[in-house]
Amino acid sequence: MDYTLEKIKQYILDAVVTAFGKEVDRSKIEIEAPPSPEMGDLAVPCFYFTKVNRISPNQIAAELKDKIPAKGVIKKVENTGPYLNFYLSGRYLSSHVLKEIVKKEEQYGARKLSKDRKETIMLEYSQPNTHKEFHIGHLRNAVLGSALINLYRSQGYKVIAANYIGDIGSHVAKCLWALEKFHSGEEPAENKGKFLGQIYTEAVAKVEENPDYKKEADEVQQKLERNNKQWIALWKKTRQWSLDDFNRIYKLLGIKFDQFYYESEVEKPGKKIVGELLEKGIAEKSEGAVIINLEKYDLKNFLLLKSDGSSLYSTKDLALAQLKFKKYKLDRSYVLIDTRQDFYFQQLFKTLDVMGFAQKMDTILYEFVTLKDGAMSSRKGNVVIFDDFYKEILSRAEEETKKRHENWTEDKIKETAKQITLAAIKFSMLKSNNESIIVFDPQEALSFDGYSGPYLQYTVSRINSILKKEAAPSAKQVNFGKLNLQLEKELILALSRFPEIIGEASRESQPSYLAKYLFDLARLFSSYYQAVPVLNSESAIKQARLLLIMEIKQVLSNGLEILGIPTVEQM
Predict the structure, then answer these.
(1) What's the average model confidence in pLDDT over 394-412?
(2) Which domain holds residue 26?
(3) How far is residue 94's CA from residue 326's CA, in Å, rounded to a whole number?
(4) Residue 225, by phi and psi: left (phi above 0), alpha (psi -120 to 50) or beta?
(5) Using an 8 Å Cβ cutoff, are 86 and 106 in contact?
(6) pLDDT exceeds cutoff 60 at 475
(7) Does residue 436 sit within a domain?
(8) Residues 146 and 205 grouped into a single domain
(9) What number is the average pLDDT over the span 491-497?
(10) Whether residue 42 is found in the same domain as residue 146
């Protein structure tokens, strides 16, 4: 028997159904954690069984209690009203769960899909625009997408990590127009991406206040789409500034992509598709622009091409969908977007459907990152730039690390501070459910205590320091019967839940489930270590406890790896 919590629940479910003795819908039988340890380790409410046996759930629980044998992982069964309470054997549990983790190590929690269930999926995420700053809103998408990739792969899926970069469009034209008109010949030695973002913000302000400027910027976009040599040369040069910036940030964050797509490569194919839709009568002209009428689907009119012939996001997204499935044999493709783009993608997917494009595409939605005084906007210039955010936290981390380790070398302080900084910023973006708006608070993000990435790193580091004093034994040397405290059983049950948590986080596309689990496990370990002497215990007990904390470290490390958060040997 594979002693993860899922398998233990399956064992209990089998025992309950066998004892009941009648055909039931097993999916309707719940197994849950009781409100307190005194009421057992797991509980089965018997309300469902009353639909099969017309007697009270209390009576059913009382009868089933005596029919379920106390064997294997089940130590005893009691009933409290309509609930069956299962008390698990601590020795049996600890022996099997800890041996399972020892055996699988880094693979503990991972699954393999059967051949008939194997799927290849693509997740498109990050999607920054060139000629704008990479800010903390982009950070949430990038960090969330990377964690989702790791989650899906841990469950046996083949996943293509894709990035679709907006390297053309009206925002690029505005930036280049302002660069040439007001900053001709300027080229900063560094921070070129930030420089372009500032030019873009300036361009938006000037275009909004002067209609002639808007006309000039629009003309730049048309010239770019007609391959005007002068503007294309400037575009290529400045585009590379942004791409270099993005790649530097991705390398820093440890984020890798299997495939890059660019708006510039799908613009012409997109215009061709729009032309074909016009010919077929699927699309139509409206005041010179091209639209598709989606009114009967309650999705309004969807604009496919501007009246001056310039492309839109929609123009290019039609071609991108085809490009994705042409190269890869995908079972489905997901796009990670913030909720403000949801309606647009409903329109896009319905347009593809009307076109006869039958491949499976869907979105994964998350809420945006905002500031205390309102939503960020590159157009308005009120954004928290990633580099500024990162440097602020890095400076604080270096200060804290130097205080604690005055004898460390400068290089060691800087490297440790870098890992702590990555944990702080990544966890701050992953600990909230996708549906939660993150109100960015620098002080909270900089916290090294409580519900934070550095706290999890510190827990792993703390266990490292214990194991340096005395190494954990092999599982063969351990008397698992010595792990008989309630706190030890709670820890082992928590460890057994890890594969279930990863599976649920993957199915729901919610890395926050894993983040909370790791925090709860770290906090439980902290309570245990404060209450129980590990190194000062009698020899046989000490050996068992050392193995237990080593496997706690293994599970924490496995979970942090999925979230993309590095561990630190010493803090």
Answers:
(1) 93
(2) 5-88
(3) 50
(4) alpha
(5) no
(6) yes
(7) no
(8) yes
(9) 96
(10) no
Q: How many CB atoms lie within 10 A of CB 25?
A: 9
CA distance 5 to 10: 8
- The structure tokens listed for 377 are 């906007």
pTM, full prediction: 0.93
Structure tokens, 384: 């928290």
243-290 pLDDT per residue, tens: 999 999 999 999 999 999 999 999 999 999 999 999 999 999 999 999
d(CA 560, CA 562): 5
For residues 175 and 227, state if they share a domain: yes
279-286 contacts, C-beta under 8 A, 24 or more apart: 282/354, 282/355
- Helices 90-104 and 539-563, packing angle to 10 deg: 50
CATH number of the structural domain spanning residue 65 = 3.30.1360.70
Report the C-alpha dihedral over residues 74, 80, 84, 86, rounded to 10 degrees. -20
Q: What is the largest CA-CA distance in the chain?
A: 86
- Give backbone dihedrals phi and psi of 499, rounded to 5 degrees, phi first: -60, -35
Q: Are residues 295 and 335 in the same domain?
A: yes
Q: Are 397 and 421 in contact (CB under 8 A)?
A: yes
- For residue range 201-224, list pLDDT tens digits in order: 999 999 999 999 999 999 999 999
- Joined tokens for residue 262: 């660019």
**Position 379: which residue type?**
R
Smallest CA-to-CA distance from 155 within 114, 186, 125 is with 114
The answer to whether residues 136 and 250 belong to one domain is yes
* Token pair listed for 461: 């580091």
Are residues 71 and 219 located together in one domain of the fold? no
Cα separation, 152 vs 358, in Å, equals: 23
Both tokens of 67, joined, read 């029919």
Residues 266 and 343 in one domain: yes
Instruction: Count CA atoms closer than 13 A to 413's CA, side-chain side.
Output: 16
Q: How many residues does the chain have?
A: 571
What is the C-alpha to C-alpha distance for residues 243 and 233, in angstroms, rounded to an integer? 15
What CATH number is associated with residue 478? 1.10.730.10
* 290-308 per-position pLDDT tens digit: 999 999 999 999 999 999 8
Tokens, residue 140: 């949430």
Q: At what angle do helices 229-253 and 170-182 cross, to 10 degrees?
A: 110
Q: Are 66 and 27 in contact (CB under 8 A)?
A: no
Residue 290 near residue 270, CB atoms below 8 Å: no
Q: In 3-state terms, what secondary structure has residue 21? A: coil
**Percentages of the chain per state (helix, strand, coil), in multiples of 5:** 60, 15, 30
Query: Are 152 and 221 within one domain?
Result: yes
Any domain includes 427: no
Tally of structural domains, the chain: 3
